[in-house]
């Protein structure tokens, strides 16, 4: 009798906890899910990673390799790289395809490197003052400082939303908030990557998003191995997902039915015990013997649609979550799992698949990640301080190997809009990657849904409706995805170019139309310069230098200043004001390719 009594008491405790949680509904603490059960201690590493300040060798004197085939590292090349004393794993892996065979990376200017780093790590283009203040010292310390910032966390949370396709019409918004919390813990260094994958493998963001067991397996493989499963892999691992059921949870405060995941009790006898005949249907044997069966108790309810006992995932115990995370733990034992982890970071920052061209880089990074206890931040740090990242995409090279020149990528829509607004002081709103369909919350019509939206990154207008101006612009350019069918996209087309020029025109107001809500002229002129002041050649230079530093994050070149003099001379003869020169110049600078690519 002791065991049934223990089960009853456990169930009552869980139910009471659930009731008390609902009574204490807090829109700022919506997260409910397995992400709250892990990563609640200190970071797994100190975050002070080595390899940030390698002294790069000069290229070995050797005949340049033939572009038609990969460079061949002979014995002298191997000895050269072994003696180079490189600590950064990317540099170590790259040596035998770069310095060791007589090649050199392209030198990069500090301002270009800092701009690239800001966009990748904070999601915006810096002003020249920010770049000077942040990137003037030790590069490794600069990367570490930005990695510890809230902006770095937020940018990676938004990337995770794209990766997992958050949609509050498909998944319970509380589970989405929980996943967002889990991603923060990953990038705070509190959760190792294998544990992260284990939690994701049983997380409602995955199990509710994908319907059939085979779909869940395919999603898991693509997320963490970068490939679809083979048929025998799908058939075997599907047995570990047979328990999951997609249903709806009636939220007591939000006043609506939320899509969510439930557990069905399979592979059991009529008495609720493990069926020795059926349990094979809930057991994976391809990666070892893994049996996954959950037994019912007082927490279980009858689902009339499927006529089976089910259990809402919000009532699962810590031990049950541990059982259900078996698929992720299985995959993390594969070498391909760790290879995919480092490949994703390389692709993110370099924009191309370096591992496929120089496999030694992947090997070094996998070893590095495991040495750092699965702390994914270590890989971000290694790539951002490597020679592969810190080289220019401009200039000439005697070879065409992709790793001998730096990345050139297109800005995400939100990065483009946010940078424009921040640099010019233009007032704008935003969108919230956790709630891709905010209108669905408003349809519930409860006070709690309004409280959720008020505490989110969405803005409400005077009528209480969602302000979608920012989202509409971003979605035309591929950002703020709704994630119902597809996700984010990047494209250069007539439509996107027209949309971008229209926004820049509204922001800069080059025609000085009085009805436009443009950027304040004070941000486009040097401090103390009045908008009505008559333009001179000297003032034109001051305005140009100011805008280049504020809008492009750098000082103008001598050639650019010469062009400014030519343009301003036409304006000074007609007695232009400082504003009449500054606003068209703003339009020219912000509509250029330098604001679209980095």
Features:
27 helices; two-stranded antiparallel ribbon; 598 residues; mainly alpha; disordered N terminus; single chain
Radius of gyration: 28 Å
| Largest sheet descriptor | 4 strands, antiparallel
Q: In which range does the helix fraction lie? A: 40-55%
Structural class designation: mainly alpha
Question: Which regions contain 5 or more consecutive residues with pLDDT less than 50?
Answer: 1-23
**How many runs of DSSP E, i.e. beta strands?**
6
Cα distance, first to last residue? 68 Å
**In percent, how much strand structure appears in the residues?**
under 5%
Strand order of the largest sheet: 1-2-6-5
Shape: flat
Total count of helical runs of at least 4 residues: 27
| Global mean pLDDT | 92
Protein name: DUF1549 domain-containing protein
Topology:
Blueprint (H helix, E strand, L loop, with lengths): L1 H22 L51 H8 L6 H7 L14 H13 L5 H8 L3 H9 L2 H15 L8 H15 L5 H9 L2 H4 L5 H12 L6 H8 L5 E8 L4 E9 L18 E2 L5 E2 L9 E3 L4 E5 L5 H7 L1 H6 L3 H16 L3 H4 L1 H13 L5 H8 L28 H12 L14 H4 L4 H8 L14 H8 L17 H15 L12 H4 L12 H16 L5 H15 L5 H13 L8
Antiparallel strand pairs: 1-2, 2-6, 3-4, 5-6
Helix pairs in contact: 3-17, 4-5, 7-8, 11-12, 15-17, 15-18, 23-27, 25-26, 25-27
Organism: Stigmatella ashevillensis
Protein name: DUF1549 domain-containing protein
How do you describe this structure in short?
With 598 residues, the chain is mainly α. The protein is built from 27 helices and 6 strands. The chain has a 4-stranded antiparallel β-sheet, with no helix packed on it. A two-stranded antiparallel ribbon has the order 3-4.
């Amino acid at each position: 009798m002791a065991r049934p009594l223990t089960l009853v008491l456990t169930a009552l405790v869980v139910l009471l906890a659930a009731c008390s949680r609902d009574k204490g509904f807090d829109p700022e603490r919506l997260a409910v899910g397995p992400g709250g059960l892990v990563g609640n201690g200190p970071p797994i590493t100190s975050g002070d990673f080595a390899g940030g300040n390698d002294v790069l060798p000069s290229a070995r004197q050797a005949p340049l390799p033939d572009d038609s085939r990969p460079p061949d590292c002979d014995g002298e090349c191997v000895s050269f790289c072994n003696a180079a004393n490189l600590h950064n794993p990317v540099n170590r892996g790259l040596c035998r395809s770069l310095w060791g065979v007589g090649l050199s990376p392209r030198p990069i200017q500090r301002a270009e490197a800092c701009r690239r780093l800001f966009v990748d790590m904070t999601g915006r283009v810096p002003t020249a003052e920010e770049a000077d203040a942040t990137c003037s010292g030790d590069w490794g310390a600069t990367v570490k400082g930005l990695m510890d910032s809230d902006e770095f966390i937020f940018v990676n949370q938004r990337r995770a939303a794209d990766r997992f396709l958050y949609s509050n019409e498909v998944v319970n918004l509380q589970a989405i908030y929980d996943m967002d919390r889990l991603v923060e813990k990953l990038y705070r260094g509190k959760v190792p990557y294998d544990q992260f994958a284990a939690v994701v493998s049983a997380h409602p963001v995955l199990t509710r998003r994908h319907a059939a067991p085979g779909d869940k397996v395919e999603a898991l493989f693509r997320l963490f191995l970068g490939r679809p499963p083979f048929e025998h892999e799908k058939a075997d691992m599907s047995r570990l997902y047979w328990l999951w059921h997609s249903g709806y949870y009636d939220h007591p405060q939000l006043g609506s039915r939320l899509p969510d995941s439930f557990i069905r009790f399979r592979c059991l006898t009529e008495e609720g015990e493990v069926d020795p005949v059926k349990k094979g249907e809930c057991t994976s044997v391809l990666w070892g013997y893994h049996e996954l069966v959950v037994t019912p108790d007082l927490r279980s309810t009858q689902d009339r649609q499927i006529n089976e006992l089910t259990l809402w995932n919000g009532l699962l115990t810590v031990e049950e979550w541990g059982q259900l995370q078996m698929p992720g733990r299985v995959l993390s034992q594969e070498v391909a799992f760790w290879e995919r982890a480092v490949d994703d970071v390389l692709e993110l920052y370099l924009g191309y698949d370096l591992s496929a061209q120089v496999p030694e880089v992947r090997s070094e990074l996998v070893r590095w990640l495991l040495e750092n206890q699965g702390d994914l931040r270590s890989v971000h740090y290694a790539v951002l301080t490597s020679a592969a990242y810190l080289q220019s995409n401009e200039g000439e090279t005697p070879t065409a190997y992709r790793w001998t020149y730096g990345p050139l990528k297109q800005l995400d829509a939100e990065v483009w809009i946010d940078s424009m607004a921040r640099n010019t002081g233009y007032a704008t709103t935003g969108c919230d990657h956790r709630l891709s369909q905010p209108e669905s919350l408003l349809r519930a019509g409860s006070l709690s849904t309004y409280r959720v939206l008020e505490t989110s990154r969405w803005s409400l207008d005077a009528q209480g409706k969602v302000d979608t101006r920012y989202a509409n612009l971003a979605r035309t350019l591929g950002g703020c995805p709704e994630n119902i069918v597809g996700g984010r996209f990047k494209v250069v087309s007539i439509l996107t170019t027209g949309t971008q020029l229209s926004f820049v025109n509204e922001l800069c107001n080059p025609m000085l139309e009085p009805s436009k809500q443009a950027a304040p002229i004070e941000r486009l002129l040097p401090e103390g310069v009045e908008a009505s002041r008559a333009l001179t050649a000297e003032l034109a230079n001051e305005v140009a230098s100011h805008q280049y530093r504020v809008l492009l994050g750098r000082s103008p070149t001598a050639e650019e200043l010469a062009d400014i003099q030519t343009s301003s001379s036409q304006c000074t003869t007609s007695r232009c004001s400082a504003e009449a020169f500054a606003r068209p110049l703003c339009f020219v600078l912000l509509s250029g390719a330098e604001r679209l690519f980095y």
